[in-house]
Amino acid sequence: MAQPIDTIGKAVRRGMLVKATCKRCGNFRCYKASDLMMVFGGGRDPLTLNFRCGECKPAIDVTLIDVDLDRMRSAIVYEPFWMGGKVVAWMATRLR
């Protein structure tokens, strides 16, 4: 029986991406669930993460994406850039 994915830790075990989409302009970013787990912890619900659009700053719609690496090789994901033990920026990289 399928279990609901209600924590970031469960999304990491499945190798999923978290996609944050702006409801107003359609701008989106994809994040690896493993990177979000390092920043926010594994017990947090991914649908309650606070993302914001850099263009218009409305509410954000969060979805989980099951990754098929054969088809998503050209996807761009954002990884945290750490400095002094803190995340200072999210850098765009190609999905590996």
Question: What secondary-structure arrangement, pairings included, does this model have?
Answer:
Elements: H1 8-14, E1 16-22, E2 28-32, H2 33-40, E3 60-66, E4 76-83, E5 86-94
Antiparallel strand pairs: 1-2, 1-3, 4-5
Helix pairs in contact: 1-2
Give a quick rundown of the structure.
This protein is 16% helix and 38% strand. The protein is α+β, with helices and mostly antiparallel strands and 96 residues long.
Quick tags:
96 residues; alpha+beta; three-stranded antiparallel beta sheet; two-stranded antiparallel ribbon; 5 strands; 16% helix
Q: First CA to last CA: what distance?
A: 30 Å
- Rounded to the nearest angstrom, the radius of gyration is 13 Å
Proportion of helical residues = 10-25%
Portion in beta strands: 35-45%
Spans where pLDDT lies below 50 across 5 or more residues: none
Structural class: alpha+beta
Give a quick account of the main beta sheet: strands, pairing sense, barrel closure.
3 strands, antiparallel
Q: What is the succession of H and E elements?
A: HEEHEEE
Number of separate domains: 1
Strand order of the largest sheet: 2-1-3
Q: What is the number of beta strands?
A: 5
Q: Which whole number gives the mean pLDDT?
A: 88
Describe the structure.
- The chain is built from two helices and five strands.
- The chain has helices at 8-14, 33-40; strands spanning 16-22, 28-32, 60-66, 76-83, 86-94.
- The strands form two sheets. It has a three-stranded antiparallel beta sheet with strand order 2-1-3.
- It has one domain.
- By secondary structure, the protein is α+β, with helices and mostly antiparallel strands.
